[in-house]
Amino acid sequence: xxxxxxxxxxxxxxxxxxxxxxxxxxxxxxxxxxxxxxxxxxxxxxxxxxxxxxxxxxxxxxxxxxxxxxxxxxxxxxxxxxxxxxxxxxxxxxxxxxxxxxxxxxxxxxxxxxxxxxxxxxxxxxxxxxxxxxxxxxxxxxxxxxxxxxxxxxxx
Length: 156
Fold this sequence. Notes:
Elements: H1 35-42, H2 56-62, H3 64-90, H4 100-105, H5 107-149
Region (Disordered): 1-32, 128-156
Keywords: Membrane, Transmembrane, Transmembrane helix
Transmembrane segments: 66-84
């Protein structure tokens, strides 16, 4: 037999329901503030608060374009720094990199030498990767041949 709940005498809405109407303004203790005082408060500077609307500082702090530019610039520079440090610590051709003094005296020559070393590094990494893949394929073939010779054809 299903449980039947007792019907309430009248509907009492929940005190914290999400369907309750929202109050228009936040509750404020003290006397009501007039429109003149409210306008005066907009232009006033309080500690630890946003600057008043219409000021340069308010536009800087609320500018989406400026925030986007700064954040993308920081992320791009961090990505470049990480890439450069990873390259410098993993390349076997570090001794072939040009000196930093060459960067100030002739930056184009510095960059051309740097990119030549980078191309050598990429070729080296590609060769290592190809060798690893070749070894993995040969190992798989050896295991397959071993299983075939020892009668374990269906295993694996």
